[in-house]
Amino acid sequence: MDYIREFDIRLEKEMYYAGETVYGVVILDTSENFKLRAVRVVLRGRAHLEWKVVVSGDQQSISDDQYFIDERSTIWGKEKADGSIPVLPRGYHQFPFHFLLPESCLPCSFESKIGTVRYYIKATVDIPYASPPQGMKYFTIIGPHIDCMEEQYLKPLSRRRKRISCCLCCKKGPLSLSVQLDRSAYVSGESLRLKADIHNRSSEEVRLRLRLIQYVEYTIHRGVLGANKELQHVVLEYRGDPVQPGRRSKFDSSQSLVLPALPTTLVGVCRMINVYYALHVSLLLESEAEDLTMEFPVTIATVPFRIPNSPNQPVVYYEPACEHVEGGRYVGPEFQLGQVYDGGPANCEADVVLYRPVYVCVSSLRSHLKTGNNFAASCAKLTQQNSKDRNTLLAATSSIVSSSPVTKAAITEVGNSANDAAPATSQDS
Predict the structure, then answer these.
(1) Which pTM was predicted?
(2) How many domains, the chain?
(3) Cα dist from 310 to 238, 313, 314, 364, whole Å
(4) Which of 294, 297, 312, 408 is deepest in the core (most CB within 10 A)?
(5) How far is it, in rounded angstroms, from Cα 87 to Cα 105?
(6) Could you name the domain of life of the organism this protein comes from (predicted)?
């Protein structure tokens, strides 16, 4: 509409926690007087899954949704479309609004090709006898609330394994591995606090191998059985120096195993998406086979570890997830400047990204990302692991869990793209 010079949604900040109040304004700058029935805003939080399956030889799309927030407010004009219609004088107008986020546990914002968790403000300018202009402003929810200082996360986790075996007629000799993880919850940017003791009395050299794995489970609750997808990504990998036969070696992670920016652990908060992590520790033999493998559940938290009464408290900032994990690998085409979403494959090489969710990090991440030459972040998915082991890990993680920046709102009109497009073909409404 030619007489609307500017239509925008502006928020007080770009990241919010559960229980906070979202303050913002709708900006409307017009060049002439016109009849305006109302200006309405909606706060919505929605998880959406969608992918294609083959049924009887035909490819079909299946999807599911879960809503966490759906609040509405009329910030100017009339609630109901009756009686006379007021006139909005020309000029620059600001219509303030606010919404109180629920105190309940909200899942973190999340973006992947298969599923999303999105929070946004949608504003509608209700003009009689015309297609109402609509705008959407996305923002990040930091959640769920997981504090590294909770007692359950401060308990050290220890494992010890020993091998005394033979291979046909050739004795391999005893081999032992003891590992202690000082605590089980970390914020991105912190270093995994791990100590290992390797006693190699075998006939071959061994290496310590550490891998932090991200597990993501997507579940669509439709039909009798529903559908699910399970993905795994290597977050970081470390290989130690060789331990020669007859030698003993000790490893202390100190500041070397720094976590990149990662989505928060999400277990039991959203019925469609579970995100959890595990640290795999093993000894790598000369044949590249693994021995004495052990596993530790690791929780990615939202509140960092603090040293009581210390003047040096962690400095928190927010950053998108690294690009080799779920939650960081994908940018929706609707958030890429200049891209027109046509339902086809996304081009993730666009230079300008209008929105990406961000996650809690501490300042040590920036100073240590360039160190640690032993890291080999892998983008390849791991082969499917034993489902029983994975269910055990998920149960362990579930028992522990208690309960960049967004730019200018996209302005659309009904008939063009009034709604937020989902990763495949459906749209937020």
Answers:
(1) 0.80
(2) 2
(3) 31, 7, 10, 16
(4) 297
(5) 42
(6) Eukaryota
